[in-house]
Design a protein that fits this description.
alpha/beta; binds thymidine-5'-diphosphate; binds adenosine-5'-diphosphate
């Protein structure tokens, strides 16, 4: 594959969507063909699964939830991301398998290695070249989400200790793979974070 695969990770409201839009424009101004996509979602099937995972009323067993995210991921990578990388595009993706390790592993308390292995099987071991982790304390993320006045989905509605476990899991993941991850302070200004991201991406593309 000749393309470049960049993923964004972090808690809900950490600023991923904001930074992805800015990075897309920055890359396009430099002549790159960019595919912006997200998980869950990113394909028609993925959007149907997203609706179930995020908005279905009632209990979903933790392993079923993990497999629904993995099913979305398998289809998304096979039909959209891998072909884009084969063409040589830059794929900028909102969440990938680190989200499953953090949310289903640490959040739902499943074995993180097993959760990761399911995703690796689903994606035929596709790993990002760069993962940008936006780190934001839970109370700041919550304030931002409250001011957006959007209804909380099933995961966002989880208690504070769930989100604290997710944040700590992300930190462990980043520590374990420092060559893939960059951790940025998501409470910095939007412009400052964008500047730091473009510095990293410029190095990756050079
Ligand atoms: P995510 O995609 O991670 O859920 P968003 O990009 O949608 O996050 O941002 C959530 C909210 O926080 C939005 O209202 C956005 O304008 C705001 N926001 C994003 N980045 C920052 C930042 N660095 N400082 C302050 N507010 C921010
Ligand atoms: P997303 O749409 O990125 O929400 P936000 O923009 O608010 O961060 O993700 C939807 C939710 O799904 C989010 O709470 C994180 C969760 N999620 C998992 O639990 N596991 C996964 O593998 C993925 C991709 C997302």
């Amino acid at each position: 594959m000749t393309g470049v695969f960049i993923t964004f990770e972090g808690g809900d409201g950490s600023g991923k969507t904001t930074q992805i839009e800015l990075l897309k424009s920055w890359l396009e101004e430099r002549g790159h063909t960019v595919v912006v996509t997200r998980e869950p979602g990113g394909t028609d099937l993925g959007n149907e699964l997203r609706d179930i995972i995020l908005h279905r009323k009632g209990f979903i067993a933790p392993r079923a939830e993990a497999l629904l995210y993995a099913a979305d991921r398998a289809h998304h990578i096979h039909t959209l991301v891998a072909p884009a990388l084969e063409r040589g595009d830059v794929v900028v993706q909102d969440r990938y398998l680190d989200s499953s390790v953090a949310y289903q592993g640490a959040g739902r308390v499943l074995d993180p290695t097993e959760v990761r292995d399911v995703s690796l099987w689903a994606t035929e071991n596709l790993m990002p070249h760069l993962t940008i982790l936006l780190d934001v304390p839970a109370d700041v993320a919550k304030q931002r989400q409250d001011s957006d006045e959007r209804a909380y989905d099933r995961l966002e509605a989880e208690a504070e200790d769930f989100h604290q476990r997710v944040r700590e899991s992300y930190q462990r993941l980043a520590d374990a793979e420092p060559e893939r991850f960059v951790i940025l302070d998501g409470t910095d200004s939007i412009e400052e974070i964008h500047h730091q991201i473009t510095q990293k991406v410029a190095t990756l593309l050079s």
